Every structure is written in C-alpha cells, then in structure tokens.
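Fig. S4 source data, part A: sequence.
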Amino acid sequence: MDFIREKSGSKGSGETRRILCGKLSRYPMNKRRSAGFILLALLIVAAWLFWPSDESRIRRTLREETKAFEAGNLDGVMTGVSYTYRDAYGMPYIAMKGYLKRFFEQFSDIGVECGDPGIRLLGEEEAVAELNVRVLATMGNERGYILGDLKGPVRVRVFLRKEHAAWLIAQTGSPELARLPQGPR
C-alpha cells in the first residue's frame, strides 16, 4: 500500500495508523462536520417539503375509494374502510361489506361524480371530509341516478380515522344514503 508510510525507526501500529489517517484526511475536521450538518439540514428540509400532508393522504384515500367503487371492486373499497366502521344508522363493517357485495351484483357500469372534498382535521387522528357526490349506475337495461340527480349532487360527510399510519373511513352520513336501493337479499 503506497499511502501508508512508516517513519524510520518506528514500526508500531499506532504510528502507522496516525500516518494513514493523516494521509487520507484532506479536510480538517470542522469542514467535515459543517458539511455533515448542511447535508442533514438539506435532508430535513427535503423530507418536510415532499412528505405528504394529512389532507393529501385523505384526498388520495377518497380518490382510491372512488376508483374501486366505480370498478365494482369490493376488496378495493373495503381496503379503505376501518374495521370499526359504523354509519349513522348503526351498520357495521361486515354488514356494509355484505350490502356492497349485493349492490355490485345488482348494478353495473357505475359512475361516480365527486366534487373536491372540504377536509377538516379534528385532531391528529380524526378528520371530516364533506363532498358533493352523484352516483350513476345501470341495472338491467336502465341507467339512472342512485345518489343525487340532475338538479344537483348530494352532500356526503365522511368521518376518517388514522389507523396504522393510514386514513380509513370510520363513518359516513347523509340523509340520502338511507334511501339507497337495498337490492335482493
């Protein structure tokens, strides 16, 4: 190794190490330390700028739920629903899953028109999203509005809870939701 030199008369490993470290370090320690602090500060700023906010995570959850609902993907819809889900009328998670299964069997070509949600954080673990929704679907040969109508959409309130670092739907509420078709049982 050509970068290790020993002084004449000394063959100790301590002397060799000191020469090796002195030879490899081009910058004084304070310049290395300040470069490390600058790099750390840049990483913190980049994480702060690019880390998604709670509101953007909630918007993504609602967008994914809408896409899964339009596709008739029961598992995709239920991925965004909390196991502790209860709607304003007391329907729990399992009953909602059964209801949606019957709904997807009965209706096809589902289209959802969703306005931009108004999101309010109620703390670090809970939020409310209010959005205007219209749902169009086909049953047999007939196509019509399931939720909302030509005059206007229905205002839906969705309560979300943060569980395991993900925002999940914990409750929904709207007077129109009670009048959704139940389908054959």
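Fig. S4 source data, part B ends here. The longest helix spans residues 29-50.
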